[in-house]
Amino acid sequence: MKKTRLVVCCVLAAALLAPGLGYSAAFSIFDQGAKAVAMGNAFVAQADDPTAVYYNPAGLTQLEGTQIAAGVTAIWPKAEFQASTKDAALGTYYGQVTKTNDDEFFIPNFYLTNKYNEKVAVGLGVYSNFGLSTDWPDNWPGQYCSGATYTRIKTYAINPVIAYQPWKFVSISAGFIANYMDAQMENNILMPGGVFGPDGHMKVEGDDWASGWNAGIMFYIQDEFRLGASYRSQLCHDLTGDITVTGNNLINMKSGGTLDINLPSVLQIGASWSKAPFTVEFDYQWTKWSNYNMLQLNVDSTGAVTEIDKNWDDAHAFRLGFAYNVVKNLDLRAGLAYEPEFVPNETLDLIVPNGDRWTWSCGFGGQYGKWVADFAYAYLYEDERTFDNEAGDVYNAATGLKVGRLVGEVQEVSAHILCLTVTRKF
Known about the structure:
Layout (H helix, E strand, L loop, with lengths): L1 H15 L17 H5 L13 H4 L10 E18 L13 E3 L5 E11 L4 E8 L3 E5 L14 E18 L2 E20 L10 E21 L4 E8 L2 E12 L6 E11 L2 E10 L2 E10 L6 E6 L5 E5 L5 E13 L2 E10 L17 E12 L2 E12 L2 E3 L5 E3 L6 E4 L2 E18 L1
Antiparallel strand pairs: 1-2, 1-3, 1-23, 3-4, 4-6, 5-6, 6-7, 7-8, 8-9, 8-10, 9-12, 10-11, 11-14, 12-13, 13-16, 14-15, 16-17, 17-18, 18-19, 19-23, 20-23, 21-22
InterPro entries: OMPP1/FadL/TodX
Pfam family, one: Toluene_X
Main location: membrane
C-alpha cells in the first residue's frame, strides 16, 4: 500500500506542475486591456489608459484626473492530439485524433488611477496575469498522463502603484503585487487487466498567496517618439491543498500536500512613434521561464518529497502594433506577435506543448463624452510539437511498473480571444 501511494504521489507531482494547454505563453496571460490587445500587446511605450498599471505604470502621470476602467477577456482554447503509441496496455490508439472539449474562461480586470498633482500619480489594478483552462475527454489516449483530463488554474493580482515625473521628459514608477493562485487538476490512474479492479481517478486542489513588485520607466524623447520599459518580479508560490484518489479501494487516498512553483519575472521594452493620424509601436518581451527549472512536491500522508526537473528556457516575444485615428474619437487598431518555442523536447508535456506561437489581433476604440470603450479580437496559433519523452510514461498504480509510453503529436493548438474595456473619466 505504501508503494502504491508513492506511485500515486509521483503522478500527483507531475499533475501539479503541468500547467498549460490553455492559452498564452505557457500559462501567462497578457490580455489586461482591450486597447493593448488590439495592438498585439505592443503598449509599454504608450501606456496611456488606466491599464498602464499593468503594462507600464510610469504612464500614469500622463492621465488626467481620476479614471476608472473595467473589462473582461474571454478565451476559447482548443487543441488536438494524434496518438502514435503502439503499447497494447494503453489501448489501440494508433492514429487516433482527439480534440479538447469545448471550453471557455472569462478573465475580469479593474483599474483605478488618480493624478495627485503635476508630478505624482497613483493607481490600483486587479487582474489575472497567469491562468489556463484545459478539458480533454475522460477516455482519451492521454487520460493517464499527469493532469491531462482537466486542468484549471486561476490567479488574481492586486497591484497598487505610484508614478513620479521628476522632469518633463521622464517618468518612473513602482508597485507592490499580491498574487493569489488557485489550481485544480485531474487525471485517471491506470489499473490494467482488471486484476486490480477499475481505474482510479485523481483530483488535486491547492491555493496560495505570493508577493512581488513591478516597476516602469518612460522617456518622452519628442512629441512623436517615446521609449518605455517595465519589469514584473518573480512570484514564488507554495501551493497547499488536497490530493484525492477515488474509484479503486486499492489506491483510494486523501492527503494534504504542498508544491513550490516559481512564476517568472517579465521584462518589456518598447518604442512608440505617433504622428496624426498614425501610431506604431514595437515591443520586445523577455520572460524568465528558466525560473521554472524544478518543482518540489511534499506529500503529508507519506512524507515523500518529489523533485521534477522542467529546465525551461527563457521566452522571447516580439510585438508590433498599429493604430489609425479615423475621426476625432474613433481609432482602428491591429497587431502581430511572435514567440518561438521555449520548452525543451526532453521536458515537453501534453499540457504545455509550446510550439512557435503567432498572434494576430485587431480592434477599435471610441470616446463619447467622459466614456471610452475599447474592443479587441485576437487569434492565437501554435505550431505542431512531437510528444515523446518521460512525461508520457504510464505506470500500473498498484505495482509501480511501467506499462507503456504515450507518443504522438500535439496539433491545431489555437485560441480565440475577445476583450472589452470600458473607462470612465472624472
